[in-house]
Amino acid sequence: MSTASAVDVLSHQDPSNPSVLIDSFSSMGFTVNGVTYVGSMALFPRVPLLWNVKSVEELTPESLTLFHLVNPKIELLLIGTGSKIETIDPAVRQMLKEKRISLEVLDTPHAATTFNFLSQEGRLVAAALIPIAPETPASTNP
Protein backbone atom coordinates (compact mmCIF):
# COMPACT_ATOMS: atom_id res chain seq x y z
CA MET A 1 0.00 0.00 0.00
CA SER A 2 1.46 3.37 -0.97
CA THR A 3 0.81 6.48 1.03
CA ALA A 4 0.54 9.81 -0.75
CA SER A 5 2.68 12.61 0.60
CA ALA A 6 1.61 16.20 0.58
CA VAL A 7 3.11 19.49 1.62
CA ASP A 8 0.65 21.63 3.52
CA VAL A 9 1.72 25.15 2.52
CA LEU A 10 -1.55 26.98 2.32
CA SER A 11 -4.21 25.81 4.74
CA HIS A 12 -2.36 26.28 8.05
CA GLN A 13 -0.85 29.65 7.35
CA ASP A 14 -1.62 32.51 9.69
CA PRO A 15 -4.41 34.53 8.03
CA SER A 16 -2.79 37.73 9.31
CA ASN A 17 0.37 36.79 7.34
CA PRO A 18 0.46 38.92 4.20
CA SER A 19 0.17 37.33 0.81
CA VAL A 20 3.34 36.76 -1.16
CA LEU A 21 3.95 39.72 -3.45
CA ILE A 22 6.80 39.97 -5.94
CA ASP A 23 8.28 43.44 -5.55
CA SER A 24 10.95 43.18 -8.25
CA PHE A 25 13.15 40.82 -10.22
CA SER A 26 16.55 40.88 -11.87
CA SER A 27 19.07 38.56 -13.45
CA MET A 28 20.14 37.59 -9.91
CA GLY A 29 16.74 36.70 -8.48
CA PHE A 30 13.66 38.19 -6.88
CA THR A 31 12.56 40.54 -4.13
CA VAL A 32 9.48 39.14 -2.45
CA ASN A 33 7.73 41.03 0.36
CA GLY A 34 10.86 43.14 0.80
CA VAL A 35 13.26 40.18 1.05
CA THR A 36 15.76 39.55 -1.76
CA TYR A 37 16.32 35.95 -2.86
CA VAL A 38 19.12 34.88 -5.21
CA GLY A 39 18.09 32.32 -7.83
CA SER A 40 14.87 30.76 -9.03
CA MET A 41 11.72 30.79 -6.92
CA ALA A 42 8.73 28.56 -6.25
CA LEU A 43 5.94 30.85 -5.08
CA PHE A 44 2.62 30.04 -3.48
CA PRO A 45 0.02 32.57 -2.26
CA ARG A 46 1.54 32.70 1.25
CA VAL A 47 4.90 30.92 0.89
CA PRO A 48 8.01 31.87 -1.12
CA LEU A 49 10.62 29.13 -1.58
CA LEU A 50 13.99 29.03 -3.29
CA TRP A 51 13.85 26.53 -6.16
CA ASN A 52 16.89 24.68 -7.47
CA VAL A 53 16.19 25.07 -11.21
CA LYS A 54 18.53 27.33 -13.15
CA SER A 55 17.28 26.98 -16.73
CA VAL A 56 14.38 25.83 -18.89
CA GLU A 57 16.34 22.66 -19.67
CA GLU A 58 16.06 21.72 -15.99
CA LEU A 59 12.25 21.93 -16.06
CA THR A 60 11.19 18.31 -15.70
CA PRO A 61 8.25 16.51 -14.11
CA GLU A 62 10.58 15.77 -11.18
CA SER A 63 11.63 19.40 -10.73
CA LEU A 64 7.94 20.38 -10.55
CA THR A 65 6.90 17.68 -8.05
CA LEU A 66 6.40 20.20 -5.26
CA PHE A 67 3.69 21.97 -7.24
CA HIS A 68 1.38 18.96 -7.28
CA LEU A 69 2.11 17.86 -3.70
CA VAL A 70 0.83 21.00 -1.98
CA ASN A 71 -2.34 21.09 0.06
CA PRO A 72 -4.76 22.49 -0.95
CA LYS A 73 -4.15 21.69 -4.58
CA ILE A 74 -3.23 24.62 -6.80
CA GLU A 75 -5.46 25.44 -9.78
CA LEU A 76 -2.84 27.10 -11.96
CA LEU A 77 0.93 26.96 -12.32
CA LEU A 78 2.64 29.91 -13.98
CA ILE A 79 6.10 29.10 -15.31
CA GLY A 80 8.34 32.09 -15.94
CA THR A 81 11.04 30.98 -18.37
CA GLY A 82 13.34 34.02 -18.08
CA SER A 83 13.61 36.93 -20.48
CA LYS A 84 11.48 35.29 -23.17
CA ILE A 85 8.90 32.55 -23.51
CA GLU A 86 10.64 29.21 -24.02
CA THR A 87 9.32 25.83 -25.08
CA ILE A 88 9.11 23.38 -22.21
CA ASP A 89 9.35 19.61 -22.22
CA PRO A 90 6.04 18.00 -23.32
CA ALA A 91 6.40 15.57 -20.39
CA VAL A 92 5.94 18.55 -18.05
CA ARG A 93 2.69 19.54 -19.76
CA GLN A 94 1.48 15.92 -19.65
CA MET A 95 2.27 15.49 -15.95
CA LEU A 96 0.44 18.68 -15.01
CA LYS A 97 -2.52 17.70 -17.17
CA GLU A 98 -2.69 14.34 -15.38
CA LYS A 99 -2.59 16.17 -12.03
CA ARG A 100 -5.36 18.52 -13.25
CA ILE A 101 -3.26 21.65 -12.85
CA SER A 102 -3.65 24.32 -15.52
CA LEU A 103 -0.42 25.68 -16.96
CA GLU A 104 0.65 29.02 -18.39
CA VAL A 105 4.17 29.44 -19.74
CA LEU A 106 5.24 33.10 -19.89
CA ASP A 107 8.37 35.15 -19.76
CA THR A 108 9.29 35.84 -16.14
CA PRO A 109 8.15 39.51 -16.05
CA HIS A 110 4.65 38.55 -17.22
CA ALA A 111 4.53 35.47 -14.97
CA ALA A 112 5.46 37.60 -11.94
CA THR A 113 2.81 40.20 -12.72
CA THR A 114 0.15 37.55 -13.32
CA PHE A 115 1.08 35.76 -10.09
CA ASN A 116 0.73 38.98 -8.07
CA PHE A 117 -2.65 39.73 -9.63
CA LEU A 118 -4.14 36.24 -9.23
CA SER A 119 -2.71 35.74 -5.76
CA GLN A 120 -4.24 39.03 -4.60
CA GLU A 121 -7.57 37.80 -5.96
CA GLY A 122 -7.31 34.77 -3.66
CA ARG A 123 -6.77 32.24 -6.45
CA LEU A 124 -4.90 29.02 -5.72
CA VAL A 125 -2.01 29.87 -8.01
CA ALA A 126 1.68 29.05 -7.88
CA ALA A 127 4.64 30.32 -9.88
CA ALA A 128 7.87 28.65 -10.91
CA LEU A 129 10.14 31.53 -11.84
CA ILE A 130 13.58 31.50 -13.45
CA PRO A 131 15.44 34.84 -13.29
CA ILE A 132 15.66 36.93 -16.43
CA ALA A 133 18.89 36.84 -18.45
CA PRO A 134 21.43 39.56 -17.69
CA GLU A 135 21.13 42.54 -20.00
CA THR A 136 23.67 42.62 -22.77
CA PRO A 137 25.23 45.95 -23.70
CA ALA A 138 23.62 47.56 -26.72
CA SER A 139 25.65 47.12 -29.84
CA THR A 140 26.72 50.21 -31.68
CA ASN A 141 26.36 50.39 -35.43
CA PRO A 142 29.39 51.76 -37.25
UniProtKB/TrEMBL annotation:
GO cellular component, one term: mitochondrial inner membrane
Keyword Acetylation: no
UniProt-listed InterPro entries: MTH938-like_sf (IPR036748), NDUF3 (IPR034095), NDUFAF3/AAMDC (IPR007523)
Pfam families for the chain: DUF498
Subcellular localization, as worded in the UniProt entry: Mitochondrion
Gene Ontology BP terms: mitochondrial respiratory chain complex I assembly
Keyword Acyltransferase appears in the UniProt entry: no
Top-level taxon of the source organism: Eukaryota
Keywords: Mitochondrion
Family note: Belongs to the NDUFAF3 family.
Protein name: NADH dehydrogenase [ubiquinone] 1 alpha subcomplex assembly factor 3
Source organism: Capsaspora owczarzaki (strain ATCC 30864)
